[in-house]
């Protein structure tokens, strides 16, 4: 089974557990860390695409301030729920081969989905393709140190006195790992931050915003804010240059 098939089967099997975990509001990382700063940076968009939209939660949030919102996801069970809950158009498809015209959107969002995409280069290339000139790509992702800590005993080690520390390994090596928690079993991909930065720069985008957002409120905030688990990036596709007179 290749990475794409494994990802599809993992999400198909895990869709019920995911819906139970997210509920209608989402988990701690979304509700107390990412939602507010991500939503703030969607303002001003008119046509937004959420790649890997799942059950459509962030699409519904964007729809309150963005006139046209589309969600894309390959997992039919999640799309069925998204369509039931409404507020946006939902399309079945994959990030690596999107069924949209060039320049169809002025905002593309990848909200914690890049670790799920086997061929991230193809996925990012497609995100850039469907952006109009001057459009923005808004990314939320797990920190590389965190995904590189999933290779041994779920990343955790304990000393003789029982004190826990996290083991980071194979950071510079792009590799897959299986994330299993609360009834879910999903194949994820680790890539170092430099891979993402160099890929996005190589695709011709300009970095306009970077952040490692802290948790705001919630019972887990004090523990969470000891280290950045998540990052945000906003990239802009350069506007088309006007042709010079005479060619």
TrEMBL record:
Gene3D superfamilies the UniProt entry points to: Vaccinia Virus protein VP39
Keyword tags: Methyltransferase, S-adenosyl-L-methionine, Transferase
Any Pfam family the entry gives: Methyltransf_11
Single GO molecular function: S-adenosylmethionine-dependent methyltransferase activity
Taxonomic superkingdom: Bacteria
A biological-process GO annotation: methylation
Limits of the Methyltransferase type domain: 49-139
Protein name from the UniProt record: Methyltransferase
Organism of origin: Roseovarius indicus
């Amino acid at each position: 089974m290749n990475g794409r098939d494994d990802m599809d089967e993992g999400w198909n099997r895990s869709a019920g557990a995911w819906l139970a975990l997210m509920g209608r509001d989402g988990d701690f990382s979304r509700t107390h860390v990412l939602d507010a700063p991500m939503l703030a940076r969607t303002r001003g968009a008119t046509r937004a695409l959420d790649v890997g939209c799942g059950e459509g939660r962030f699409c519904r949030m964007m729809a309150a301030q963005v006139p046209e919102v589309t969600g894309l996801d390959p997992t039919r069970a999640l799309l069925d729920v998204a369509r039931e809950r409404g507020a946006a158009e939902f399309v079945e498809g994959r990030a690596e081969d999107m069924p949209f015209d060039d320049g169809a959107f002025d905002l593309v969002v990848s909200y914690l989905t890049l670790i799920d995409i086997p061929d991230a280069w193809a996925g990012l290339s497609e995100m850039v393709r469907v952006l109009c000139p001057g459009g923005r790509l808004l990314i939320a992702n797990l920190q590389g140190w965190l995904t590189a800590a999933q290779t041994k005993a779920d990343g955790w080690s304990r000393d003789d006195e029982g004190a826990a520390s996290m083991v980071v390994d194979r950071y510079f090596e792009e590799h897959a790992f299986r994330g299993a928690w609360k009834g879910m079993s999903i194949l994820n991909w680790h890539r170092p931050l430099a891979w993402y930065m160099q890929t996005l720069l190589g695709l011709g985008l300009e970095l306009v915003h970077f952040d490692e957002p802290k948790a705001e409120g919630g019972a887990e905030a004090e523990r969470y804010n000891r280290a950045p688990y998540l990052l945000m990036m906003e990239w802009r596709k350069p506007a088309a240059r006007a042709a010079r007179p005479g060619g």
